[in-house]
Amino acid sequence: MSKPPKGVARFDSSATMVMALSNALHQRPFSSPSQSPTLDRMLPALNLLPERVREWGYALGGMAEGITLSQAQHLDIEGIARWVANQYPQQQYQAAFVGSSNGAMVHLAAAMGVPWLPQTFLCPVRSSHNDPDDAQKGMADGKPITDALLAASPHLAVHHMQDPNQDRLMLDQMSYFRLKHRKLPLEYHEFLLSALPPGGTLVINHCTQQWPATRTSDRSFYQFGAVGGATEQEYFSGGPRVMEYLARNGVEREKWEPPAPDVTVPEAEWGFDAHLMAELKKLANSQNWKLVELRYENPEALSFVTAEIYRDWYLSAGVIASRLVVDNFLLMDPWTTMQQYAIPFWLTFCTEPSASSLQRYLERQPRFRNIDLLLFSHGTESIGMASIERWQQLLNYATDEGAFVGVDTERFPRDFATLSRFDEELKQRSPLLPPPEPLTTETFLAGVQRYGEKFQVECLLHN
Fold first, then answer.
1. pLDDT digits (tens, 9 = 90+) for 90-119
2. Which one of 152, 296, 300, 424 has the lowest number of neighbouring Cβ atoms within 10 Å?
3. What gap in Å lies between CA 158 and CA 253, rounded to an integer?
């Protein structure tokens, strides 16, 4: 499997989820989001270093993913799309997903044995001596980069995203630009034509999550903050938790002062840009494909439905699932999860809102014998981060054993070696068995119709 090309971050949700799904379709485990044996060997040593040195090493590794302003001006959009399409077996499929990044959707696609083409990808651009907390300067400094990325393609929307709460370490030396396809790249178009036969199903994965932003052109936006532990109000108006967080990080301000938002747009990482809809409808009609829109507001809403569909899928194979695997952000392995006949429940991040989602799910289910929890370390005690003690409370819902998998609880949230450790430990948690026959499109659609309304997930069929 090849590494993502320049201009795509390996530590981003979309690139990692493509690789995780690709491995499942190639019938192999997803052992490393980094796809770098050298880096994976270094991470355990990094974990042994003092806290500040660990943070520096983590940020330095992220900076290596960044491109320069000059490279942004010549970003190879088709080359990136070609990399995505080439990750999957080149064959025909019963269905294909296009659209929002989402870990639960990746598990659905893996169960069906079908590919997904992400609308959004993260383009990190090197920008030394940033001040993560100065939003006004951040937007101004990002304008030349935004202009360069807009010039790279007339079919991209550019979302400059600055989140000093959750991305604090990375923002010290780079800026985040999430790019959304408003028109299918030629490589996506050609892949779909070869992969989907007449009568196949094209599923638009449409997360309607929105966020207030400042418009900087007809195709670009500046987004301050993001979905996670802090609220929109805290990002824009401050509050006790913001004041404490800034003071703890030695910042001489009581709140952030971002530019006044003047528009509400699809959230940079998770939201779907509906400009792509018309082309997908036209393409599906021309190829005699069924077009289905999977629509939901909160990224984790789909996790509830996916878990129910997996339970029924296993039951149809004669297995009563008793193991739950809780994914976290980009830590997941769909292939191993299926081989363990485990139910997946994906969480966006390591925050209290995500912990509450998991608690709601556990309270509604018969108790699992085993719960395995993956936990992503983002390097800082951010606002709304759920503590190890909170996660342990949720693991206690297991009747036999609830376990952290690949997590050094003493070093969290600076446990960077979890990236190289989680999958090997997950594989050791339970015997690996051949998974059931692939989930059919019809069973998937019936499952969404059956469970979706309860969790605000809609399945819309377009003519």
1. 999 999 999 999 999 999 999 999 999 999
2. 424
3. 29
Measured CA to CA, the distance from residue 19 to residue 431 in angstroms comes to 23
The two tokens of residue 251 are 């910042």
Question: Prior bond to 413 cis, omega within 30?
Answer: yes
CA distances in angstroms from 34 to 17, 57, 336, listed in the order given = 12, 15, 18
**Are 299 and 259 spatial neighbours (Cβ–Cβ below 8 Å)?**
no
What gap in Å lies between CA 59 and CA 63, rounded to an integer?
Answer: 6
- Residue 137 near residue 23 (C-beta atoms within 8 A): no
**C-alpha of 75 from chain center:** 22
* Ramachandran angles phi, psi of 209, nearest 5°: -55, 130
Task: Check if the beta carbon of residue 222 is closer than 8 Å to that of residue 259.
Answer: yes
Rounded CA-CA distance 287/107 in Å is 26
Question: How far apart are alpha carbons 384 and 369 in whole angstroms?
Answer: 29
Query: What letter represents residue 332's amino acid?
Result: M
HEC readout, 166-218: CCCCHHHCEEEEEEEECCCCHHHHHHHHHHCCCCCEEEEEEECCEEEEEEEEC
Across 315-404, the runs of DSSP E, i.e. the strands, are 323-328, 343-347, 370-373, 401-404
**Sign of the C-alpha dihedral computed for residues 212, 215, 218 and 220 taken in this order:** negative
Q: Which residue type, as a one-letter code, is found at position 183?
A: K
Token pair belonging to 16: 């990692």
CA-to-CA distance for 187 and 84, rounded, in angstroms? 9
**Average pLDDT score, the chain:** 93
- At residue 7, the pLDDT reads 86
* CA torsion, ordered 331, 310, 4, 375, to nearest 10 deg: -10
* Degrees, nearest 5: CA angle 335-340-343: 85
The encoded tokens of residue 147 equal 């202009």
Q: How far apart are the C-alpha atoms of 439 and 317, rounded to whole Å?
A: 11
- Give the C-alpha separation, 263 to 213, whole Å: 5
Model pLDDT for residues 393-443, shown as the tens digit of each residue: 999 999 999 999 999 999 999 888 888 889 999 999 999 999 999 999 999
**Token duo for residue 91:** 């064959």
Given a cut of 60, is residue 266 above it in pLDDT? yes
Q: By three-state DSSP, how is residue 121 classified?
A: strand
Tell me the backbone φ, ψ of residue 404, rounded to 5 degrees. Answer: -70, 135
Burial group, residue 274, by CB count within 10 angstroms (0-12, 13-18, 19+): middle
Classify residue 417 by its DSSP letter: T
- Whether the CB-CB separation of 242 and 383 falls below 8 Å is answered with yes
Q: Rounded CA gap, 19 and 32, in Å?
A: 9
**Cβ count near 342 (within 10 Å):** 24
